[in-house]
């Protein structure tokens, strides 16, 4: 799926800073354009990550 998507769109992701914690929330934006239509796209995203027992 990711390979197909990477062939169909151009994208860029902002790289969040690196943190060391048990709970982390990362907020970001991905932007790009669909190669077939040359139309731009934008995706606001949030990752909520909890680490337990080192995993």
Explained architecture:
The protein is mainly β and 55 residues long. The protein has one domain (2-50): Roll (Nuclear Transport Factor 2, Chain: A). The protein is built from one helix and three strands. The chain has one helix at 2-8, and strands spanning 9-13, 23-34, 40-50. It has a three-stranded antiparallel sheet with strand order 1-2-3. A hairpin with a 5-residue loop joins β2 and β3 (40-50). The two termini are 26 Å apart.
Order of helices and strands: HEEE
| Total count of strands | 3
Q: Compute the number of helices.
A: 1
From the 3D structure, determine the CATH topology: Nuclear Transport Factor 2, Chain: A
Shape: elongated
Summary tags:
three-stranded antiparallel sheet; mainly beta; 55 residues; Nuclear Transport Factor 2, Chain: A; 51% strand; 13% helix; 3 strands
Topology diagram in text:
Layout: H1 2-8, E1 9-13, E2 23-34, E3 40-50
Briefly say what this structure is.
With 55 residues, this protein is mainly β. It has one helix at residues 2-8; strands at residues 9-13, 23-34, 40-50.
């Amino acid at each position: 799926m990711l390979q197909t998507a990477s062939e169909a769109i151009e994208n860029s992701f902002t790289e969040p800073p690196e943190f060391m914690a048990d709970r982390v929330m990362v907020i970001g934006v991905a932007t790009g354009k669909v190669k077939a239509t040359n139309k731009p796209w934008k995706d606001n995203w949030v990752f909520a990550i909890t680490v337990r027992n080192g995993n």
